[in-house]
Amino acid sequence: AARAYRHRFNNAAGWTEVKFVVADFDALSNADFIGQVSIHLDKASSLAGHEQVLHLVDRSGNPVIGKNGLPATLTCAIQFHPLPEGRLSAVWRVHVLSAANLPSRDLSGSSDPWVSLYATGKEGSQAFCFQQRSSVLPRNLDPQWDEMFELPVARPGEQFLAEALEEAAPGLGAAASWLSESFSGLLGGGLSD
Q1: Which domain holds residue 91?
Q2: What PROSITE patterns does the record tag this protein with (predicted)?
Q3: Mean pLDDT, to the nearest integer, of 119-129?
């Protein structure tokens, strides 16, 4: 639990990639892989929240073809939102809208699809990975999830510590910042929370 919390809320460098994995839910066996697609996250372009239709590929990178013979797709919108002062500096909002033309993975000729999001990022030598899942939509080859996922970006530790100390005792935050800057080489990069 502590590792999951750390990976979700302590990533101050930000997230660099989101991988979407679409799978078919099975109650009596493991989920069946349907397809995947990765997208690079870039604050500068931020994708402005516009809908994107992404083509699903199999584990070998080949296009996934649906039951109807058309390429399987996932539609999403991603936007970067800076936040006001606080523990978090920003959040990526990932809106998973739908998928289309999925192949059938059940004996009934349909699928019970859901999506997993795997967000990854790196801060120094520390790698971060965070997973979230959508709901399962039974017997559907063109699911409409319309679900929003958030990927928080933490404020750098020493900045947050200085802000917290300043709030607790005026003047103490400035002293902590000065100490952090003065001894950053000795402390391996400054104070951390």
Answers
A1: 2-154
A2: C2
A3: 82
Annotate 161-186 with DSSP letters as a single string: HHHHHHHHSTTHHHHHHHHHHHTHHH
| Inter-residue contact 9 to 154 (CB < 8 Å) | yes
Question: What six digits make up the tokens of 77?
Answer: 């919108």
Count of Cβ atoms closer than 10 Å to residue 145 Cβ: 21
* Angstrom distances, CA of residue 108 to CA of 58, 111, 141: 22, 8, 12
Three-state SS at 14 = coil
Residue 8 in any domain: the answer is: yes
How far apart (Å, rounded) are the C-alpha atoms in residues 98 and 171? Answer: 51
| C-alpha to C-alpha distances, 134 to 48, 177, 193, nearest whole angstrom | 22, 41, 32
DSSP 141: S
3-state secondary structure (DSSP) of residue 55? strand
Pick from 111, 99, 109: which is nearest to 143 by CA? 99
Q: By CB neighbour count within 10 A (0-12 exposed, 13-18 middle, 19+ buried), where does 67 fall?
A: middle
Tell me: do 100 and 169 sit in the same domain.
Answer: no
pLDDT exceeds cutoff 80 at 158 = no
Alpha-carbon distance 14 to 129, whole Å? 11
pTM: 0.76
189/119: higher pLDDT = 119
- Given a cut of 90, whether residue 55 has pLDDT beyond it is yes
Taking the mean position of all CA atoms in its chain, how far away is CA 52?
16
Q: Cβ–Cβ contacts within 10 Å for residue 79, how many?
A: 14
